[in-house]
Amino acid sequence: MSWRGGEALMNYRTTYQVMMSTDGHHRVTVTIEDPGGTDAALAWAKATYSRLLKANGQAELLQEESLEAPECAVHFSPMERMQGRLGPFWSCHQKNRDGSWCSYKPKGF
Ligand SMILES: [Zn+2]
């Protein structure tokens, strides 16, 4: 959903406050001086709030992933999170006995 007409509402001195909180309790506050702008302002607030929830969910997900670094079953060393062309993946930065890079892939990642 895209928001249009924000400038028009600003003429009525409608103010939006978005409070980001680390505990996940985000707050979107809308102060409306023009009664005609209520519906649009509420729609904006709802859309913004749901977007905040989505963004927060992703942030929490990334945090969990970084905490759960799997261990290489060959070298018993923690693996590193890499950013690949097809997305993030876990990689072991140790070499095998024959000199080749470890290609161990953890299960479930
Ligand atoms: Zn390894």
Describe what is shown at a glance.
This protein has two helices and four strands; from the N terminus they run αββαββ. It is 33% helix and 18% strand.
Q: What is the terminal separation in angstroms? A: 32 Å
- Count of the domains: 2
Number of strands: 4
Task: Determine the mean pLDDT.
Answer: 74
Shape: rod-shaped
What would your notes on this structure say?
The chain is an alpha+beta fold and 109 residues long. The protein folds into 2 domains: 2-66, no CATH class; 68-109, no CATH class. The chain has 2 helices and 4 strands, in the order αββαββ. The protein has helices at 6-11, 38-67, and strands spanning 15-19, 27-31, 80-84, 87-91. A two-stranded antiparallel ribbon has the order 1-2. A two-stranded antiparallel ribbon has the order 3-4. The protein is rod-shaped. The protein starts with 5 loop residues before the first helix and ends in an 18-residue tail after the last strand. 6% of the residues are buried. The model has no long low-confidence stretch (mean pLDDT 74). The chain binds zinc ion (ZN).
